[in-house]
Design brief:
By secondary structure, the protein is of the alpha+beta class. About 25% of the residues lie in helices and about 30% in strands. InterPro entries: PBI_I9 (IPR052471), S8pro/Inhibitor_I9 (IPR010259), S8pro/Inhibitor_I9_sf (IPR037045).
Length: about 70
């Protein structure tokens, strides 16, 4: 399964972030990392179900986790 970086909305409370994480788990995802500097987490998630995360009320962005290079 691909891994995605999930960023929650800045106004989301800790309980709302936890709700987004639980939603990801309920849809077959596995949380692989929890971020402290941003309200977000990394999750291994089935690519064919990613729209369920993108449309969650407390999620701001869903981005495929990939290597970043500088020039």
């Amino acid at each position: 399964m691909p891994t995605y970086i999930i960023t929650c909305k800045s106004e989301a409370s800790a309980d709302q972030v936890a709700e987004a994480k639980q939603h990801a788990k309920d849809q077959g995802g596995k949380i692989t990392h929890e971020y402290n500097l941003i309200k977000g987490f990394a999750v291994e998630f089935p690519a064919d179900k990613i729209t369920t995360l993108e449309s969650h009320e407390h999620v701001k962005a869903v981005e495929l986790d990939q290597e970043v290079k500088t020039q």
